[in-house]
Give the backbone structure.
Amino acid sequence: MNKATSCANLEELINDYLPDRIKLAIKGMDIRFIREMEEIRVRAGLPLMGVFSGYDRFIGPNGVLSDNPGNGLIVSAQELRNLFYLLCEHSVYAYQEDICRGFITLRGGHRAGICGTVVYQDGRITGMKDISSVCIRLSKQMKGCAGEVVKSIIRGNQDIYNTLILSPPRCGKTTLLRDICRLISQGMESLNFRGLRTAVIDERSELAASFGGIPQNDLGPRTDILDGCRKKDGIEIMLRGMAPQVIIMDELGGQYDAEAVKMAWNAGVRIIATAHAFNLKDFKGRLGVGQLACGGEGFERIILLGMNNGKRWAKVLDADDNELSFLDQNGRMSDGFFRLHCHGLKVVGKAGGEAACSSKISGDNPES
């Protein structure tokens, strides 16, 4: 997605979904902050807030950003209700399943997380009422950000290595995974790599961001998508009906995910997945999924992401923790990758021997 497409995408979100006062506040912001904004957080009776690259600010009625909550636009309960109905396109019933999962996928690939009073029936969540806050996460696909990294996971002209992407939160794992999927699916003529039949298990609707069955993000021409499906169920469905060569999934967690991955491997299908971890040792210590990176029978390539002295890096390891390549901001990595969550970044600490992707904004006035 180029910059023009991204801006048009955001403008559509602002015009179609936001109530009038919130719309005016967002449109009143300096254009550079609109472009860098990652989330819009709306809470009943509290100031409107924007989340940018590693920091947040309250948004005033005229779009001025401030650290002081007293300067923010106070959102009324009625405005929040109006926002919720706009997000549901005035049909709460049609979005009931999504609401029960806590989020709604919007046109353009954006996603709205929802908080309120949860309604239970027979031990399961059946709805949500008295909506108290909404977090709109803005979709910003970065095509080309995986251009160099993907070279390390290609094996021949029609195969890839089983690959795991690890990093702390908000270092760009999902964005990188999305672009890897696109490249694996479409193929790379420069590497004589043919595209592979690719299946995406989009459990949290973040990779494809499907809306009405149509993916809002480009995952490639040979890609089939199961939206909102648990990994284990999704792998079974894909193996039975779609004959994929590669299965892609985000956020590996517990034992059920580990069993699902092994099921795919036993069927001869490659896996590309992500997980939260500071390094390979950290991941190996996780119950259930940690075993997938132990020995020579699990993931064959590990991609670590992080930040060091304000510079983004990606390190590719083999299954024995040997470094195969190191790509940094001064090296061969695509420039788009470095724009992910990196404006105003400073490294504030290390964890597990690897630089955590953490950030800090200096100064009191973000517009100075």
Observations:
- Confidence is low (pLDDT under 50) at residues 1-5, 338-368.
- Residues 3-137 form a domain with the Beta-Lactamase fold (CATH 3.30.450.90).
- The longest strand covers residues 124-137.
